[in-house]
Design goal:
The chain has 142 residues and is mostly helical. It is built from 5 helices and no strands. The chain has helices spanning 4-25, 32-59, 68-81, 87-111, 118-139. Helix 1 runs antiparallel to helix 4. The longest helix has 28 residues, at 32-59. The N and C termini lie far apart (37 Å).
Length: 142
């Protein structure tokens, strides 16, 4: 079982990973519609991250953030994957994979948190909805 602080840390890391993946892709050439979709997803992740930090601050919690080494490796891997071929399809594929991982992690967290408070439940659901919408949105770019 996880406590609220662990759930919030996990949620925060998930939003940061999503932001990192999107920012790494935005340096690539892509169709305007895909760029617009990614920028909208980035704004959603930013908003959820800000809300997570606000909850942590209100509760006096120090929450874990994404490891700097993981940030570096993820960015390098993304750039390598996008260095050749059809970028739009490859970007959409990577985003769907990332959104799917985020959904799985979020659902596992909710199942391991027997008595979540309303703020954490609402924020967790907001992230799950964001991940699900991201998957649907990216399908047309495959």
């Amino acid at each position: 079982m996880k406590n609220g602080k662990e759930i919030l840390s996990s949620l925060l890391k998930t939003t940061q990973m999503g932001q990192l993946g999107i920012r790494s892709c935005l340096n690539s050439s892509m169709r305007p519609g895909l760029r617009k979709a990614l920028e909208a997803q980035l704004r959603e992740y930013d908003a959820i991250e800000s809300e997570a930090h606000a909850i942590a601050s209100q509760r006096g919690w120090e929450v874990e953030e994404l490891d700097p080494a993981l940030r570096f490796m993820t960015d390098a891997m993304t750039r390598m994957k996008l260095s050749r071929g059809n970028c739009d399809s490859r970007i959409a594929d990577m985003m769907i994979q990332g959104n799917t991982k985020g959904m799985i992690k979020g659902l596992k967290n909710l199942h391991q948190f027997p008595h979540p408070d309303d703020k954490l439940r609402t924020l967790s659901q907001k992230l799950l909805d964001c991940e699900n919408a991201g998957i649907r949105q990216m399908q047309s770019f495959l």
